[in-house]
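Write out the bound-state structure for guanosine-5'-monophosphate.
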Amino acid sequence: MKLLVERIKQDGQALSEHVLKVDAFLNHQIDPELMQEIGKEFAARFADEGITKIVTIESSGIAPAVMAGLYLHVPVVFARKRKSLTLSEGLLTASVHSFTKNETNEISISKKYVAQDDRVLIIDDFLANGQAALGLIDIVEQSGANLAGIGIVIEKSFQDGAAKLKELGIRVESLAQIEALEGGKVLFKNDKVEELV
Ligand code: 5GP
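---
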């Protein structure tokens, strides 16, 4: 997705060879117009899949997921990383190790909102080693719902998440694919090396 790739080139910061900071438009400050275009793109790619529900994980998955839900006209459910007082029974849970925070969270979704007759699209901001996606897939499987695929805003193709999901036969649609982060530079798949500010 050209608009997204241009924005990463403009505002992304390679913090190391593994971590890309995009808190100018996705992970902290959010650009609603860019999110709208991202939502439109996910909706177009999954238009023929009969999606009835979008599932994501708090917090950075929520903005792109809500925009996709808007264009697919379906509700969005986000997995919580902490137990909530109002969300304590009838939970589907999975364990997820966070790549950026190096901690393991029990994530959960209420059974009430993902059911057997749902066809689910999972959306997340980043795909690195696939732990968040695998946790969400686990929850969708526990619910008995059917998984249509996974929409990712930024895939770091040099980590093994995308390969793991494809091995499982899961459709993965990534709007930007990064081949490498090298000395402050980002190399996109099918693109040339770009200098990051
Ligand atoms: P995974 O579970 O695939 O290893 O990592 C995906 C999760 O870790 C995403 O939900 C995202 O929040 C976070 N993450 C992974 N890599 C990056 C990165 O390079 N930058 C940022 N900002 N978050 C990342």
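---
The radius of gyration is 16 Å.
The chain has a mean pLDDT of 94.
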